[in-house]
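Let's do one together. I've listed all components of the complex below, 816 residues spread over two lines.
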Amino acid sequence: VRELLTPRERFGLLVIDEPQDRVPVFPLITAHAARAAGIPLRDYYTDGAAMARGQLVAQETYGADFISFFSEVGLVAEALGSQFDYPEDDLPMLRKPKWMELAQLDDCVADPTTDGRLRVYLEAITYAYEARGDTVPILAYVPAPFTTAQQLVDQEAFLLGLLTESERVKDLLAYATRSVVGFCRAIIGAGGLPILVDPLASGSVISAEHYREFALPSEAEVIRYLHRYDLDIVLHICGDTGATIALMPETGADLLSIDRIEMPDAVAGAGQTCRIIGNYDTSAILLSDPQTVEGEVAEMVAAGRKCPKGFVAATGCEVPLDTPPGNILAFVRAAREAGLNSDYGWRRA
Amino acid sequence: MGSPNVDCRTSSVGYSDPGPARVRFEEWLELFDRIPDGLIERYHYYENREAWSKYLFPPQTFAIYGMRHLRRLKFDNSLAALRMWGFVQNETERLFRAKQTGRRVIAAMGDLGAVPVIVNSFPGCVAFYPDCIWWTPFMMESRVLFDAAAELGIGDAACFSRAALGAFTKHSYFPDPDLVIASTGASCDDYSGVEQLAESLTTDVLWVEEPMRCDRRPVGPMIRLLVREYERVVERMEKLTGHSITEDELRVGVCRANRVRRLVARLRELAFRHAALAALEMMVVEFGNLHYYSDISEWTAVLEHLLATAEERAARGERVVAEDALRVVWVTPPADPLLLTYVEDAGARVVGTEYVINQALELVDESKPRLEAVAESFMAASLIGTSRARAQSAIDQARVYGAEGVIISGIFGGSHCAMEGRLIADYVRAELDLPVLEFDVTSPSREVARQVGTRIGAFMEVLRSRR
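Okay, and this is what the predicted structure of the assembly comes out as:
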C-alpha cells in the first residue's frame, strides 16, 4: 500500500515538531544491507558504490524511513593512522591503534577525500543521494571523538588515562574532534546528514561522571558545529545509557538514539527536549520469530509515542548481520501499524 | 530611493563579501566557513529569537533536506544573497512555525499578488501562495508532488502548478490553512482546476472572481467588480479573526506592500541596467512580491540588504556577469531555475522579465480608497488580459534595456502556454525584429534537456552574429 508521505516528508515534519502520518521507522540497517543485496561484506565497506547499492536495496526491501551508512567505529581513527584488517566476510577489525599509550600528538587532520576509507562513505552518500535523495533522508554515522580516541590509542591505556591523565585524554579528544568535524563537513557537502555515534561512551564502558567530563563536551562541540548548518542531529549511544540519559540533551542533540534503557525512563529523562529513537533489542530481532517481534515492537511504539518531542521506532543498535529478513519486515510492519496517526490529514484524499 | 542603512560589505559584521561573482554550490560551503557564528545568530524571522527562527544557512543545508537541484545552480556570492536563499528555502518550516506561534495562515491562490496585501493587513495573519510550490518538483528533482496530483485527476497534461494540489494532499508542505482565498475567472484555467480539486482538501474556501481585462471596455466596471470581491475578502477575514479592520490598518498594509514593490523595482533596474545581480536571484526577488515569503517585515529587511549590495556594486561598476553579455528579455518564469544559470553560463544576461506577475510589481495608489487602489493595481495583471499585452510588456522592456533577443520558456502541458508563446513571439518579431527562442520546460531533471541546451547554444550564436 502506497503511503501518504515519503520518508523525507515524514522526517521533515518530525524535526519541526509537527505530527506525522505515522511514526518514522528505522531499523538500524547498516552492514546487514550487504546481506540484503548479496554483496560481499568486504566490498560493502571498501567500495562506495557497493555500499550505496546495498543500502538502496535494503531500504526498498524493508521500507525503512532512512538510508544509513556505517561499517564500524574505527573509520576516523583509521584515516588518522590506526591500522585495520579487512576480513572477507566480517567488518574491519582494529589491528593496531595509532598509539599504544597517551603519547605526544601529531598535527594530523584526516582528509576525507584521501585518507582511509572516508571517501568510501562520501561516494556512497553521493550515489544514494542522487538515486533516492528526494524521498529518503540519507544519514551517515560518524564516530564521535570519544569513540574515535579509543581507536587511536590502546583502549586500556585510554580508559586508564581517564583516571590518571585527564589532560592528555582531553588533548586527544580535541585532536580527534578536528578530524570528526572535517569528516562531517565533507558529508554535508555530499548531501548526507551526519549522525554522531558514540558507543564507547555508553554506561556499559564508562561512568556517568566520566561521560560528563570527557565524552559529552566533545559530542557537544561537534553538534555545535553541525548546528551552524541548522541540521537536526542524532546522537546514538548504544549499550546502557540509564545513568546518562538526563545528561545527553546537554550535548545539544536534537534526537537521541538509545539502546539498553527502559523507554519510559528515556522519555522521562530526555523526552522534553529531544526526540527519542529506539530501542528494540537487537538480540531479539536476530533470534526471535516474526510474531514475537511484532508484538514486542507494538509495545515499544506504544511507549515511545508518549515522548513529547516525537519518536522514531528503531532498533537499539545495528541490526545484526545475519538477522532473518522476515524479522526485519515484521519490525517495520508492526511499527508502522502501531505508529499510525489516524488524525493526520483531517480530510484524506 | 535612498541607500538603506543596512550591513553590506563592511567588516562591521565580521564578514566581508568577496568580489561579485556567481559561484557553484561547493564554493558556498567554503564561503560559509568564513561566516562568524554571530552573523548566523543575527537573522531571525517573525522577530523571534528562538533557534528555530534562524535562517542564515548555506544551500547545503537545504540540499540535505531534499532540495537536490541546489547542487546544480550558481549563486550570487554575497552575504545578502545567502541571506535571501536561506530565508526563501526556509519557508515551509516558517509557515508551520506561524501556526505553532498562534498566527493564522491564509492560502491565497491564483491572483498572484493582490489578496496578500489585504490579508497581511490583519494582525497576526500570514498569507502564502501554494501556487509557488510549482518550483518544488524541480528543486527536489522529484515527481512526488506531480504523482500525488495525478492521483486526484490532474496529470501531465496540465501546468506544473498542479504540484500545489499534491501538496494539499500531503499536509506536509504547508500547514492546513485557516482559510483559502481562491481566485478564478480570467486566469490560468489549469490552476482553476487545481483550486477546484483542492477545495475538497480544505475546510474553508472563499472564491473570488477575477474580471477579464478587455482593452475595448472601460476598466471602471472591472475595478468595481474587484472591489466588491475584496470587500468579501475583508468580511471573511473579519469573521475569521474576529477583528474589524480599520482603514488605517489597510493603509499600513498597502504602504508595506509598496515598500517591497519599490525595493524590487530598484533592484530590477540595478540588475537589468548594471548587472548588479544575476537572473536567478532576481527571479526569487520578483516572486517575493507575491506574498513576501510569509514574513513581510523580514523579507523587506532581506531586500534592503540586497539593495545595499547591488547599489554598492553599481557604484563601483562591478558586475556578476560579463559586461558584454548578450541581453535578453525572459517571458514566463522558468519552472526549472537551472535554465537561468544555464543561459548566463552561455554568455547572456536577463535585462527584462514578464513572469506573469505584472500585477505584483505595480505600485498601489496610496491616495485612493484602499480596496479600490488594490483593485486598480491588479488591473495590470499578466493573465487577465491578452497575449498582446504580455508581449507589449516584453517589447517595452526590450526597448528600455536594449535587449538583443527574447526567450520564452513555456510550460509543457500548460494550456495557456500552448498558443501564447507563439503569439508573443510573433508580436515581438513584428515590432522589434528581434530573434526569439521559444521552448517548453518538460519535467524535473538533473540537467537542462539536451535539445533545449542545443537550441539555447544556437540562439546565443545568432545573437552574437547580429552584433
